[in-house]
Structure formats: structure tokens, C-alpha cells
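Something for you to look into today, if you have time. Could you write out one complete protein record for me, on any chain you like? Leave the record below and I will have a look.
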Amino acid sequence: MTQTGPMTAMSKEMQDCVEACMSCHTLCEETMSSCLQMGGQAQMQIMRALMDCSEMTRMCADMMMRRSPMSAEMCALCAKACDMCAEACMAMPDDPQMMRCAEACRRCAQMCRTMAGATM
């Protein structure tokens, strides 16, 4: 399979960032499911943060993979969504699923901030 056009190989940093985004996306989706089972009003705020983060991380990974000229800006926004989601998940420190999600969000935010500062 030959590549056409001037597509250069993704940098290791970008590959790592795409992977962090996808793993964060997956964890947000799993955590939403767990949140829905719990029910309750407090979960609504967390659900919103999870939904935003899930969408942003998936879109961010897609944009990096297709070398979108908006990737850097998207990474900056994605980092913000991940920070907000990590913060929301921290509201339930006794829930292991929430803590796993918060950790994935923090890691993704850090990598996205790095990518946002880099020239893609």
C-alpha cells in the first residue's frame, strides 16, 4: 500500500497524543455508563464533562491523524475539556472508575498541551 501526497510520518509525540486521546475517549464512555447506573443529580454535571471530553478527544485524535491545519488549536481545546473532566471526576474520589478516568484525562491534557505548543 503506497501513500500518495506529501504525508509525512506522524511524530512519536503525535502518535502518543493520539493514543492518549483515544484511551481517554474510551474511559470517558465507560465512565458515562457507570454514571448512568448510579443516577442522581450530582452526576449530571459530571456527565456533561464526560460527554464534552469524550467528543473532544475523539475529534482531536481524528484531526491529528488527518493532519488538519487546526490540530494545534484543537489540542489546546481538548486539553481544556480534559482538565474540566478530570476536575469533575475528582468530585467522586471514592469511585475507582472516576479516578481511572480522571487520570486518563490528566495524561491526555498534558500531552495535548505539549502538542498545542508544538508546530505540527
User: Anything to note?
Assistant: The chain has four helices and no strands. The CA atoms of residues 1 and 70 lie 27 Å apart. The first helix runs from residue 12 to 38.
